[in-house]
């Protein structure tokens, strides 16, 4: 099988994040594989173990995204591709990402492309479905189980807490949801092997893309952290007294009644 996982290097939301001038400060940020993309990579490896073939992990990012690609290779992917977007002067958006990825996939004849359900930074959840649409292949989102026999795929997907079962055919794009699998940790031999595995670096020219072809259709105007919450007030004394005070505060301070 010709298996692809599309992966984004995102900052680690478990670490402290600081915002400066409407942008996440990259100085303090730790970068990791987007957690939903780990499910995509793991499922790609499981498919290869069952059906044979090759797993390629593709990312659009700067040079530093090589670290996350090496992690994916250490997990067991066969090949990695880094599409360098640094030469672009303007910021990209979901349109840009999809336009670049679809140019890459045009000549690739994938049997299946696995994406994350959503990224933990941008969080738009658009890239997977947009890419499938561009390539004219079936798309199933938020999958929690995947079975492929021949050309046929039976998929369970998370539909707002319920399970929906879908049958479709390859080629196929799926977006992966928590519960699909348990992503493996790279083993020490895996990390050693990853250093020698192929990592292809492409520029937009290699994909016959002009900058204006991938110009963003949207613009982020501002980013900010939620306002700091004020301290709560703990009422004390007799319950009847507390109720009176609470009612009075709801009228005079909170002004909700
Ligand atoms: C040329 C370019 C310049 C950019 N400049 C900036 C910038 O200056 N500031 C900024 O904050 N962002 C920038 N971005 C990031 C861009 O806004 C987001 O990557 C894009 O909009 C995807 O949105 P999302 O993160 O919400 O992904 P979602 O749609 O939530 O992602 C869903 C899934 O799509 C796949 N995917 C998403 N992004 C990528 C990727 N890059 N490579 C491979 N697979 C991917 C993953 O499988 C992911 O789980 C740039 C992107 C490009 C292509």
UniProtKB/TrEMBL annotation:
A Pfam cross-reference name: ETF
Molecular functions (GO terms): electron transfer activity
Gene Ontology, cellular component aspect: cytosol
Lineage: Bacteria, Bacillati, Bacillota, Bacilli, Bacillales
Transmembrane annotation, as ranges: none
Keyword Cell cycle: no
Record PANTHER family: ELECTRON TRANSFER FLAVOPROTEIN BETA-SUBUNIT (PTHR21294), ELECTRON TRANSFER FLAVOPROTEIN SUBUNIT BETA (PTHR21294:SF8)
Protein name: Electron transfer flavoprotein subunit beta
Domain spans labelled Electron transfer flavoprotein alpha/beta-subunit N-terminal: 21-211
Database matches in SMART domains: ETF
Entry-linked SUPFAM superfamilies: Adenine nucleotide alpha hydrolases-like
Sequence similarity: Belongs to the ETF beta-subunit/FixA family.
Cofactors named for this entry: AMP
Functional description taken from the UniProt entry: The electron transfer flavoprotein serves as a specific electron acceptor for other dehydrogenases. It transfers the electrons to the main respiratory chain via ETF-ubiquinone oxidoreductase (ETF dehydrogenase).
Keywords recorded for this protein, A-Z: Electron transport, Transport
Organism: Bacillus benzoevorans
Assembly and interaction partners: Heterodimer of an alpha and a beta subunit.
